[in-house]
Design goal:
CATH architecture: Beta Barrel
CATH topology: Lipocalin
Strand content: over 45%
Radius of gyration: 17 Å
Distance between the termini: 44 Å
Number of strands: 8
Order of helices and strands: HEEEEEEEE
Number of helices: 1
Structural class: mainly beta
CATH class: Mainly Beta
Strand order of the largest sheet: 1-2-3-4-5-6-7-8
Shape: globular
Length: 140
């Protein structure tokens, strides 16, 4: 009987831990059409808010500039650029901040959460949204 209760408790704790995993760390962005791995984004916390910056570009020119980006990011290198800004924790999700899509230079309202080993990154424009599934980056 005790072994059954201990096993049940262990399974429950493992299940809770799986869904409470941290979004912080390095993630591989994936092109939703081609499936190509495009960049590595480091998600970090600063002053209680979530941010994300591009730490490596996996395809194309690593020195590419963000020609379409707004404001002070215009014509700045993508490498090192902060593309996730000021997300606030809301339970198991982070929202209320902005996500920059460097390809078109547009800022979107954002929401980020974990689903198993994946990071779900959603950008909103009004009632329309698109969700990307990012993969964990594992150092080789």
């Amino acid at each position: 009987m005790r072994i059954g209760l201990v096993t049940f408790a262990f399974v429950c704790l493992s299940f809770v831990q799986l869904y409470a995993q941290s979004p912080f760390g390095r993630w591989i962005t994936v092109d939703e059409v081609s499936g190509e791995h495009k960049a590595i984004v480091e998600i970090y916390q600063q002053d209680g808010l979530m941010f994300g910056k591009i730490v490596d570009i996996l395809v194309g020119d690593k020195d590419i500039l963000c020609k379409e980006c707004p404001g002070d990011q215009k014509n700045q290198p993508l490498l090192g650029m902060v593309i996730i800004k000021s997300m606030k924790q809301q339970g198991d999700t982070w929202a209320g901040g902005e996500i920059l899509k460097p390809e078109n230079g547009k800022m979107y309202d954002g929401k980020i959460w974990r689903e198993g080993d994946h990071l779900m990154v959603r950008g909103y424009l009004g009632f329309l949204y698109k969700t990307q599934q990012w993969l964990p980056f594992k150092d080789q």
